[in-house]
Amino acid sequence: MSIRLRLTMWYSGILAGTLLIFGIGLYFFLHYYLYDQIRADLQRQAEATYQRILPIYSLRGSGLDLLLDDQDMMSSSYYTQIYNFTDNTVSRSALLQQYKARLPVTDNTRKTLQSKDSYFEKVTVFKQEVLLFNKRLLLPNAGGGGYRLVGVLQMATPVGPFERFFDILQYILAFLAFVTIVVAASVGLFLARKALRPIDRVIAAAGQIQDGADLGRRIPYDGPNDEVGRLTHTINGMLDRIHVMYTELDEAYRAQRRFVSDASHELRTPLTTIRGNVDLLEKMWRRSAEEQGTQLADPAQLQLSLEAMQDIAGEAHRMSRLVSDLLSLARADAGVQMERSELELRPLVEEVARRAQFLERKADWIVGSLDALEGVRVIGSRDYLQQLLFIFIENAFKYTPSGSVTLDALRSGGQVGLRIADTGIGMDKEEIPHIFERFYRADESRGKTSGTGLGLSIAKWIIDEHGGSIEVTTRKDEGSTFIVWLPIAFPQPLE
């Protein structure tokens, strides 16, 4: 849920609560105020009527004849009635006589008047709701000492119009509250969208910077220096610092890549010269020893000299491979695109399989079925693909002190897979994510097998350049399986 929508819902809810409290308060205030006025007027009219009939009521001490005798003319707008409890007779005002109606008197009325001088109640008279005021009529007891209830003076006024007014008022308040909330929510959403529009621009600009990796872009803002303005200026300042740091790091990285590339290139020439001269000296030494015989030289010293030259040659060869690997990785870092062309894959793999049997190894070399490569052509570099296969095969030989190394092929859809499986030392599953990192070597192999830890990094780069993928399956002390998947250039159509 967006911020603008949450803000709109929050102040719409607060407004709805405020209007609800205000409407309920207004309703009950008007209800209480109007009914209080009606009760006061009704009680005042009843007391006035009581005072007018009081002389007659007092003279008729028998309490058997309680009549209005036209004494309610001043309250002709009210329904007035006197009920005599002694003989159950009723004296009504003109309005009640006109409607032929009576105000209700029940047993509950008599019980209530026994303890109260007067009270109000709502009743229905000739199908309309009225507010009824009851006032008791007392006469002294015949023997003296106290009073007895002889009747009740009742005065009522219609309240139906007021009830209808309050019903209408409920609907009006509810409708006005609904309209107010809808209008306020619409206006609030518009204002929230307008207020948060600069943040949308910030998000859009930041997204463009992220997608385009253009750290030189800045977020435009021409509004006031409020919270959004300060946020925009802060982000722009942060982008400035990031741009400077990124530029410095990129320049340093470019310089490092140039250094590695130049150093690797420069080291190749003297290493080649060293290897050539060592090979030449070794050949000359052997020839001279054979021509002159062992009389002119100590055989042990001659053997030590030969071993020293072989060590120099081996180390020079190892340094040459390392420099070659570093040069390949430097080219990869520099973004050098290898030259690729359409080529047939099976002859290439068969050539690698033939040459692999002459590599130094202790395991058996098994070439499985290559029928899946029949007629398969890929877009790639012959030299780099051969280097890729030799990296995996040499690694398999290196980490398989006994057992076998197998090469075969398989197809799946529009891809062809080259599988190199061994029965060597294998790896832990925690090591798999790191085997393609530069200079990474499993702890178990350090000191036991030679290598630089760059071969699989180069292999991963070659696979990526050919649009392929690598699948690794391994188990500790049971061996490893690498499957190199390459996209087929022109898959054969189905017959």
Q: Could you explain how this protein is built, in words?
A:
Keywords: ATP-binding, Cell membrane, Kinase, Membrane, Nucleotide-binding, Phosphoprotein, Transferase, Transmembrane, Transmembrane helix, Two-component regulatory system. Residues 262-490 form the Histidine kinase domain. It is found in: Cell membrane. Residues 193-247 form the HAMP domain. With 495 residues, the protein is α+β, with helices and mostly antiparallel strands. It folds into three domains: 3-166, Beta-Lactamase (2-Layer Sandwich), CATH 3.30.450; 228-333, Helix Hairpins; 341-487, Heat Shock Protein 90 (2-Layer Sandwich), CATH 3.30.565. Helices cover 54% and strands 18% of the residues. The strands form three sheets. It has a five-stranded antiparallel beta sheet, sandwiched between helices. The protein has a five-stranded mixed beta sheet with strand order 7-9-10-12-11, covered by helices on one side. Strand 4 and strand 5 form a beta hairpin. The model is unreliable at 443-447 (pLDDT under 50).
Distance between the termini: 55 Å
> What's the CATH first level of the largest domain?
Alpha Beta
Number of domains: 3
Q: Describe the strand arrangement of the main beta sheet, using strand numbers.
A: 2-1-5-4-3
Strand coverage percent: 15-25%
CATH architecture heading of the largest domain: 2-Layer Sandwich
Name the overall outline: rod-shaped
Q: In angstroms, what is the radius of gyration?
A: 55 Å
**Helical residue percent?**
40-55%
Count of helical stretches: 9
- Please trace the helix and strand order, writing H or E for each element: HEEHHEEEHHHEHEEHEEHEE
Which sheet architecture does the biggest sheet show? Answer: 5 strands, antiparallel
Mean pLDDT: 78
Low-confidence stretches: 443-447
Structural class: alpha+beta
* Count of extended strands: 12
CATH topology of the largest domain, which one?
A: Beta-Lactamase
Main location: membrane
Subcellular location: Cell membrane
InterPro entries: HAMP_dom (IPR003660), HATPase_C_sf (IPR036890), HATPase_dom (IPR003594), His_kinase_dom (IPR005467), HisK_dim/P_dom (IPR003661), HisK_dim/P_sf (IPR036097), Sig_transdc_His_kin-like_C (IPR004358), TCS_sensor_his_kinase (IPR050428)
Enzyme class: transferase
